[in-house]
Design brief:
TIM Barrel, single chain, 3 domains, 7-stranded mixed β-sheet
């Protein structure tokens, strides 16, 4: 068992070859029977962040694929902020372990029509967390690559500017962005959470673990930190972020229309890159999300194909509260518009579950909806990658006379397609029919 634990730790190495070797060895252990993997169930997680943006456990794409298979998930998806750096690794890892996978990207956009209303970014009117799911490849055309580079470049500049403001306030604990922050990431895509961790570690380096450290953070954060698990417990990191980087904090600057790309621009990029634009739902309590019909109609006009939710944010066990009612209302409205619903938990805060509480009475009725959405996105990503015939392709538009018919086809394909049969779709041409596709994946 020690060997297995060591191999799983190596899955989080910043060295790609070490991750790949470790996964190969783990797969060999499954073939020899040393590791028993469960049968595939009906639970999914299509919103895992990896260490290419921020995962609180340091999980790589390979680690997430392996753990998802160990949990018996029906499908899994990664979603990183502003990059597709984990795409090829996750897809390859999925094939190795026999897991249905897909890859997404999350960013923030400006929505002019909601410029005076908070949507899903607390305290920031007009700013919306937005996703693309089911990207087929990391290699993009020059125009799409330029857009993606601009996303990560703008994010980097925001981080550097934020760091300079917080450095000024936290005098005595000064971070160097290159040396202290980027070294916490495998490919230079840092987030606010990386910066918080870097501040905690630099403070420990300067003040040690005793009274001086307590006095420093108590003074700078203005709270009693005796219960915050120094030197780098999650509550301390959350407090650093809240007090220095979020609204009301010393380093916070209110974003405006020019700080993020517009919804329409970002949706065009996602579609051109072969993904499906996805609205991210928070909990229905903001002024913007209360106007859900207007929001959905606007996003559909901009190319929306899927909606996303994080279920564990939307209910309290054994409580039929407002957020749970909002979740059900949101799912109902999405289904009425034939918008597939995907779900998952982010894993960017310690303590978050690997899989949402789908066994609960509150979420169990939604499991078939989430599984259907996962199958649709998986089928799209494979068919788009292998033949350019995905959910949003010209082929799809020509072959289905309704959104409902398209959903049923991609749902069925995603349900029956096994990872070791994905290659059979590679030689399909634009004249292929839906029966041709189904025949290929069914034949052995």
């Amino acid at each position: 068992m020690v060997l297995i634990d060591e191999l799983e730790r190596k899955l989080d190495s910043f060295k790609p070859e070490q991750r790949k070797r470790a996964l190969k060895e783990l797969c060999e252990n499954t073939r020899t029977g040393r590791i028993k993997l469960p049968e595939t169930g009906s639970y999914i997680n299509l919103h895992c962040h990896t260490f290419f943006s921020y995962n609180s456990y340091g999980y790589s794409p390979s680690k997430l694929a392996w753990l998802s298979r160990k949990e018996g998930l029906a499908a899994a998806g990664i979603v990183d902020f502003d990059v597709l750096d984990g795409l090829e690794e996750f897809i390859e890892a999925g094939k190795m372990v026999g897991l249905k996978v897909c890859v997404g990207l999350e960013t923030r956009v400006f929505v002019p029509e909601f410029a005076d209303k908070v949507i899903n970014s607390p305290g920031e009117p007009g700013i919306c967390y937005f996703m693309g799911v089911g990207f087929p490849k990391a290699e993009l055309q020059p125009q799409q690559q330029e857009f993606l580079d601009n996303l990560s470049g703008t994010s980097r500049q925001r981080n550097v500017d934020l760091l300079n403001r917080v450095n000024e306030y936290l005098r005595g604990v000064h971070l160097d962005y290159e040396k202290d922050v980027l070294t916490l990431t495998p490919s230079g895509n840092a987030t606010e959470r990386h910066i918080c961790l870097a501040y905690a570690r630099k403070a420990k380096q300067i003040f040690g673990k005793g009274r001086k450290l307590v006095d420093f953070w108590s003074e700078k954060l203005g709270v009693d930190i005796s219960s915050l698990e120094l030197p780098e417990g999650q509550e301390l990191l959350n407090t650093i972020r809240a007090k220095t980087m979020k609204k009301g904090g010393v380093g916070y600057v209110q974003p405006d229309a020019g700080d993020f790309p517009k919804l329409e621009q970002t949706s065009r990029f996602i579609l051109a890159a072969g993904g499906i634009p996805a609205l991210t739902w928070l909990d229905g309590t903001s002024e913007g999300e209360k106007q859900i019909d207007k929001l959905l109609d606007l996003f559909v006009d901009c190319g929306l194909g899927v909606v996303n939710t994080i279920p564990d944010r939307n209910f309290s066990p054994d409580a039929q509260d407002e957020k749970l009612q909002n979740l059900y209302r949101f799912v109902e409205k999405a289904e009425r518009r034939n918008l597939p619903v995907v779900a998952g938990t982010e894993m960017n805060i310690p303590g978050q579950k690997f899989v949402d509480s789908f066994e609960s009475s509150e979420l169990a009725p939604l499991v078939p909806v989430f599984l259907k959405g996962a199958c649709i996105v998986y089928a799209h990503s494979v068919l788009q990658r292998q033949a350019g015939l995905g959910y949003t392709s010209k082929w799809s538009q020509a072959n289905f006379d309704s959104a409902a018919a398209r959903n049923e086809f991609f749902h069925e394909l995603g349900s029956i397609l096994e990872t070791d049969r994905e290659y059979t779709l590679a030689s399909l041409g634009p004249d292929a029919g839906t029966d041709d596709i189904m025949d290929r994946v069914r034949c052995k």
